[in-house]
C-alpha cells in the first residue's frame, strides 16, 4: 500500500465528512426539533420556555457538529488532493 492509495483514502474520508457535515448543518433544525420532541416525550412535559431553550440547544449542537465535520472534511480533502497533484507532477 503506497502513499497514493493512502491519499486517495483520505480524500474519500474527507468527502464523506463533507457530506455528513453538510447534512448535519442543513438539517439541523429538523434534527434539533426531533431530538427535543423525543426529550419532551421522555420527560412527560415541560414549560414552553424551557422547551424552547432545549430546541435551540439541540439545533446549535447539530450546527456546531456539522460545521466541525464540514470544515475538517474540507481541509482533509484539500490537503490530500494537493498532495495527490504534487505526486502526479513528479
Summarize this entry quickly:
The protein is an all-alpha fold and about 90 residues long. It is built from 3 helices and no strands. About 90% of the residues lie in helices and about 0% in strands.
Structure, explained:
This protein has 90 residues and is mainly α. It has one domain (3-89). The chain is built from three helices and no strands. The chain has helices at residues 3-26, 28-43, 48-89. The model has no long low-confidence stretch (mean pLDDT 90).
Describe the secondary-structure layout.
Blueprint: H1 3-26, H2 28-43, H3 48-89
Helix pairs in contact: 1-3, 2-3
Order of helices and strands: HHH
With helices defined by DSSP (H or I, 4 residues minimum), what is the helix count? 3
How would you sum up the global shape?
rod-shaped
Tally of domains: 1
Mean pLDDT: 90
Strand segment tally: 0
Give the biggest sheet.
Answer: none
Uncertain segments are: none
- Helix content, binned percent: over 70%
Give the helix/strand class.
mainly alpha
The N- to C-terminal Cα distance equals 19 Å
**What fraction strand?**
under 5%
Roughly how many Å is the radius of gyration? 19 Å
Key terms:
single chain; 90 residues; mainly alpha; 3 helices; 91% helix
